[in-house]
Amino acid sequence: MLTINKITFSSLVKREIFRFSKVAIQTIFAPLISTGLYLIIFSYSFQNREVTEYGIPYINFIVPGLILMSLIQNSFANTSSSLIGAKYNGIIIDFLLAPFSYIELSLGFMIGGIIRGMLVGSVTYLISIFFYGGSIAHPFLAVVFALLVSAVFSLFGIIAGLWSEKFDHVSIFSNFFITPLTFLSGVFYSVKGLPGIWGKLSLFNPVFYMVDAVRYAFVGQSDISPTFSALIISAFAVALLFLVTYLFKIGYKIKS
Amino acid sequence: MQTAIKFENVNKSYGKLQALAEINLNIKQGEFFGLLGPNGAGKSTLIGILGGLVNKDSGQITVLDKDIIANYRETKKSLGIVPQEITFDPYFTVRETLAIQSGYFGIKDNSDKIDELLQALSLEDKADIGPRQLSGGMKRRLLIAKALVHDPEIIVLDEPTAGVDVELRNSLWEYVLQLNEQGKTIILTTHYLEEAEALCDRIAILDQGRVVKVDSKENLINSIDKKVVQIKFATQTSQLESRLADFDFKIAAAGKEIEIETAKADLNKLLKIVNKFEAEVVDINIESAKLEDVFIKLTNLGGADN
């Protein structure tokens, strides 16, 4: 169950990359437009505003959050649509008939999602350089955190894709989980500045730790300890990896 | 001969519906084995379990003596399953489809085998177009090529000629027979009984999730005691009809042709009656039972409720 054959595994990753590159307009360029618009609007509307908790310009504060948002959305979109698509057009049986181990399936789809997430995230960063200069306090940490977050949402996307019976079902995940959790995670504001209970509630939002960790990597400051955030994110990634591998093993909604 | 696939007490239910009940089957290496049964008999479920598309409830299946659950990586490499439904990854051309499929089975550079398959299945000139641009018959051939990229020992064809024209069907069977001669085990499910009769060495008949009979094709056909005697006369047969009260018969060609169904033991009796009848015989044709007769007798297609 836990063996990995290099060729089998890399073929799946290759297939995943091929899939999103063939529809690059909707998978790569479309997401860049929305993030580009966020950057333009926020940098224009809040050009003289400073985030008091951090003592930095607002645009520097939200760039890590915006990059993270596109990372999350695209990692999730890639695996969820790949799986629901495979179920919809029936080619899911290719993965069942072939000698894939369950961990190969989990990691293969996950890495496909990570690659698309990192690709869109990186281009978002490149665009953001025009808006805030492009400084990153801890570049290595930024990459590590981005990879971890991307892994978490790629895995979450696999679960959504397996669970969904129609394309519409995937949007339930986006609309009811990802969007609210992301918007309430402190992408646009510092949780430190939230009154009373609201700041505490944010601690139950896993995306908060992700935004906070990535922001630490970018600006060198954060609401809570980045080590703690890193632990939380890693724990999520590992738990989801186990869950996804288990779902492939039992053939959740793909085997009758 | 060694066993290619062994099904032992395999059970599968969907809710209350028992799709497979205590399936026991031994398929030998090198055999051309037929799996026949009416719709809903459980053929596709059985193949689904073999390929890992369906979870069985209980029982054991081994492929070349390896358990399909414990050793799934090995057993999947020994199996080439051509599914009934035509589905393709829309992102790849014909050649890319076969290359990525080879990769799934752990084969890095498989272009020689891919060329061989493209040629054998007359797809060379379609190698660089997408599967959506292929005709139905070509899609079916690509599906077969896909199942063969890893050169499996056992080839399973689930209704491979549904919707395929006659010419293509023949060339397809020629190729599959060729593979069988090379020593590959072939398992075929089909509802074209002529096809099974022409190709299979041994046949299992499934009905309502049970194996009702497994035997060689010859034994199965011989198990039906039936001869159909067609006689063409120069003149009307109306006088003969009254003497054939003990037989089932049909009249055709404006009363000049008669078709009589009889058990072998009654052949002599029949011929004597015909002999006494003095009209001139133009032609006689005697047919033995067909696989279809066996099929109808053994499955619920022949039951009183049909």
Automatic annotation (TrEMBL), chain A:
GO terms for molecular function: ABC-type transporter activity. It is found in: Cell membrane; Membrane. It comes from the Bacteria. Keywords: Cell membrane, Membrane, Transmembrane, Transmembrane helix, Transport. The keyword Nucleotide-binding does not apply. Residues 22-251 form the ABC transmembrane type-2 domain. The keyword DNA repair does not apply. InterPro entries: ABC-2_transport_permease (IPR052522), ABC2_TM (IPR013525), ABC2_TM_bact-type (IPR047817), ABC_2_transport (IPR000412). The chain crosses the membrane at residues 20-42, 54-72, 84-103, 109-133, 140-163, 169-189, 224-248. This is Transport permease protein.
UniProtKB/TrEMBL annotation, chain B:
InterPro entries: AAA+_ATPase, ABC_transporter-like_ATP-bd, ABC_transporter-like_CS, ABC_transporter_ATP-binding, P-loop_NTPase. Residues 5-233 form the ABC transporter domain. One of its GO terms (molecular function) is ATP binding. The keyword rRNA processing does not apply. Keywords: ATP-binding, Nucleotide-binding, Transport. It comes from the Bacteria. This is ABC-2 type transport system ATP-binding protein.
